[in-house]
Specification:
The complex is a heterodimer.
Chain A: H1 2-10, H2 16-25, H3 28-45, H4 47-50, E1 57-60, E2 63-65, H5 79-83, H6 91-97, E3 102-104, H7 150-186, H8 188-203, H9 206-216, H10 222-232, H11 235-248, H12 252-259, H13 264-301, H14 312-320, H15 327-354, H16 356-362
Chain B: E1 6-17, E2 20-32, E3 37-41, H1 48-55, E4 63-74, E5 77-80, H2 86-92, E6 97-100, H3 114-125, H4 130-143, H5 149-152, H6 162-174, E7 180-184, H7 192-209, E8 212-217, H8 220-226, E9 229-234, E10 237-243, H9 244-249, H10 254-261, H11 304-307, E11 313-316, E12 319-321, H12 326-330
Parallel strand pairs in B: 3-8, 3-9, 6-7, 7-8
Antiparallel strand pairs in B: 1-2, 1-4, 4-5, 9-10, 10-12, 11-12
Helix pairs in contact in B: 3-4, 4-6, 6-7
Classes of the chains: A mainly alpha, B alpha/beta.
Chain lengths: ~375, ~325
């Protein structure tokens, strides 16, 4: 007894996820893609500190403020600046109204929502507009026809590009897992209904369905766009979840769980779902990529979020009427391309790391 | 006389498949008294596992309990598990009746620690906090004598050996101090030394906790060691039922006799090849008419055996046999 236990302990044995991570780490392309996604995430998180016209930190009349947070939410910008009539231009106002003040500025002094005026930053001329706004040292990615800096727009648009992926796939994942779990676990007529529902949604071309929904929705916002993408993109996830549940509900540990008195919901979501997660995670990763693409297409067609929102797709849209302004196409296009590529590579790596059949085929 | 702990009466469980209506369990009646061990013996495919599953109504589609009753009595209150509401049944499963499965390798959920899995059962049936459930889990691991219980609590099933996992399964089954444990071939998947340890453990826990056990097995050696009463099943029916001592000393049904002769005997060397019962258990769609054992029975006679189905008769006190010619064969 003692001996068998010790040999058992001597053999290192890892959990499923750490095992998958070990396998994933061995693929340089997958790791590169993952790093790119993490890079984008940090860009999204620190966007106001990378490009903006509001100080990251400033000392004003003896207090510390973080006006840059106003880019995330208007109300997080201290009301004192509105009261003192800053009107969004900080450099001169800070100096004029409190000579003692100091500020730490974002890396690039450009605003994603408006044109930077002459002398707003001491000694700097106004942003070029129309067809003169090609990339320069001050406007890394150029400016659009109204003189708004594209680099700042892209940096702030990262948040939306990532949010679109996560929120819409979070929604699609929830719907897909729920529908697939119900069908796969209960089978019979429940499965009949959920499967047919999935097939019906699958039959309708996604973009057409989304356009139809947008036509119905009043006042489109980026959140509504995400909700619509999510509400139409769950079919693949539902089918995979159903297949996993069909397989897992036959296993002995599920029978054992039932024998301990666990109810159906508990068995579905506590016992089966964690075991079905890996195969379901892969289509979710691919889904994030396609959601970003769909948002880009929608914005390009002009059905995206309304103007003040900075999104990569809306930059592309502004290029539609001015195709000779190449920088309006190249930079957001490359951004979308690289992001989608990265998510697809992450998804592929995940698939390879978690699916034993793929692993066999590679050998 | 008080009602027995569990009384199965004329249980019929059928599977509706493309081959038609297949009665895997066909009129089985069993009685288990408090603190007793009943062995249910038979070859593969005779319906013993389906009987066990039916007891907790765990038979999954296309299987269905067609008729019969399963009366479970506790503190003078009886419920029929066949007709009980799902909610009531869930309280019985794991709480009043624990179950141990054949395959310890696959019966534990691979993504949770074993401490988690034991604690879950406790929390399902008792109003206890997380930490109380966890300490109960630790207590259970000690009870089933898992080495280093504190560390094992956070181990995943794949980190344990088969014997250890079966101990954990026993811990889960016993965690809520049930009145009955249904053990469906608990030692089949284990090697012989571990088998002995597990059986010993079950035996010891039974005498300590006073739990009744329904032990399902095809291993007559296991039955001889642990059971008070034995029921022998063949083709969905009980063919012989008696106390273990009686059954092993005076087997009456030709099938039971055959099974007992088919055991290797250590004392009798050079006794030639092992005796076997010719043929196989017929699948439910091919159950023969009359006595279901007659095609394999050396005592079978026409026309009685292949036309008339024998009933389960009490030949001597407490000894039931399903055979037309039981007295004749045994005289």
């Amino acid at each position: 007894m003692r001996v068998t236990e010790e040999t058992e302990a001597a053999k290192p044995s890892r959990g499923f996820w750490s095992d998958a991570w070990q396998r994933y780490r061995r693929r340089p392309i997958g790791m590169l893609a993952l790093c790119f996604v993490l890079f984008l995430t940090s860009v999204a998180l620190f966007a106001p500190a990378i490009a903006g016209t509001k100080p990251v930190v400033c000392s004003y009349k003896g207090n510390l403020y973080f006006p840059c947070l106003g880019y995330f939410n208007r109300s997080w910008e201290s009301p004192i600046f509105t009261k003192d009539k800053f009107r969004g231009t900080y450099p001169e106002n800070l100096k004029q109204k409190d000579p003692e003040s100091w500020a730490i500025w974002p890396l690039v002094f450009q605003d994603p929502y408006r044109r930077v005026r002459e002398n707003e930053w001491p000694g700097r001329r106004e942003n070029p507009s129309r067809d003169e706004g090609h990339p320069t040292r001050l406007n890394l990615f150029g400016t659009d026809q109204y003189g708004v800096d594209i680099f700042a727009k892209m940096v702030h648009g990262t948040t939306i590009a990532l949010l679109v992926g996560f929120v819409s796939m979070g929604l699609a994942g929830s719907i897909g897992v729920l529908v697939g779990a119900l069908g796969g676990y209960f089978g019979g007529w429940v499965d009949m209904i959920t499967s047919r529902l999935t097939e019906i949604v699958m039959c309708i071309p996604t973009l057409v369905l989304i356009l139809a929904l947008i036509a119905v929705v009043e006042k489109p916002t980026i959140w509504k766009t995400m909700a619509i993408i999510g509400a139409t993109g769950w079919t693949g996830i539902a089918r995979l979840t159903r297949a996993e549940f069909l397989r897992l509900r036959q296993t002995e540990f599920v029978m054992a769980a039932r024998a301990t008195g666990a109810g159906s919901l508990r068995i579905m979501f506590r016992h089966i779902l964690p075991n079905a997660l890996a195969p379901v995670l892969v289509p979710i990763t691919f889904g994030i990529a396609s959601a970003i693409l769909v948002e880009g297409s929608l914005s390009f067609l002009g059905f995206g979020p309304p103007p003040p929102t900075a999104s990569w797709g809306s930059v592309l849209n502004s290029a539609r009427s001015n195709l000779q302004l190449w920088w309006l196409v190249v930079f957001p296009g490359a951004g979308i391309f690289l992001t989608v590529l990265a998510y697809n590579l992450v998804g592929e790596g995940l698939q390879e790391a978690t699916d034993p059949r793929l692993r066999e085929a590679k050998k | 006389m008080a009602a027995p702990l569990l009384e199965i009466k004329d249980l019929v469980t059928v599977f509706h498949t493309s081959k038609g209506r297949l009665p895997a369990v066909d009129g089985v009646s069993l009685t288990i008294e408090r603190g007793q061990t009943l062995g249910l013996v038979g070859e593969s495919g005779c319906g013993k596992s389906v009987t066990a599953m039916s007891t907790l109504r765990l038979v999954s589609s296309p299987g269905r309990i067609e008729s019969g009753s399963i009366t479970f009595t506790r503190d003078g209150e009886s419920i029929d598990l066949v007709t009980a509401a799902e909610k009531q049944l869930r309280k019985v499963r794991g709480g009043r009746i624990g179950m141990i499965f054949q395959e310890p390798m696959t019966s534990l959920n691979p993504v949770f620690t074993i401490g988690n899995q034991i604690a879950e059962v406790v929390q399902l049936h008792r109003k206890v906090s997380r930490s109380e459930a966890r300490s109960r889990a630790l207590e259970m691991l000690r009870l089933v004598r898992v080495a280093d219980p504190e560390q094992r609590l956070d181990a995943y099933p794949h980190q344990l050996s088969g014997g250890m996992r079966q101990r954990v399964m026993i811990a889960i089954a016993l965690a809520c101090e049930p009145d009955l444990i249904i053990a469906d071939e608990p030692t089949t998947a284990l090697d012989v030394t571990i088998q002995a340890q597990i059986l010993e453990l079950l035996d010891e826990l039974q005498s300590r906790l006073g739990t009744a056990i329904l032990l399902i097995t095809h291993d007559l050696g296991v039955v001889a060691e642990t059971c008070d009463d034995v029921a022998v099943m063949y083709a969905g029916r009980i063919v012989e039922q008696a106390s273990a001592v009686e059954l092993f000393s005076h087997p009456m049904h030709p099938y039971t006799k055959g099974l007992l002769q088919a055991r290797p005997n250590v004392d009798a060397r050079d006794s030639g090849p092992l005796a076997t019962i010719p043929g196989m258990v017929p699948p439910p769609q091919d159950f023969p008419s009359g006595c279901r054992f007659h095609p394999r029975c050396s005592h079978a006679r026409k026309p009685e055996c292949n036309e008339e189905s024998p009933s389960l008769r009490e030949i001597s006190s407490g000894h039931f046999v399903r055979c037309h010619f039981a007295e004749e064969i045994n005289s």
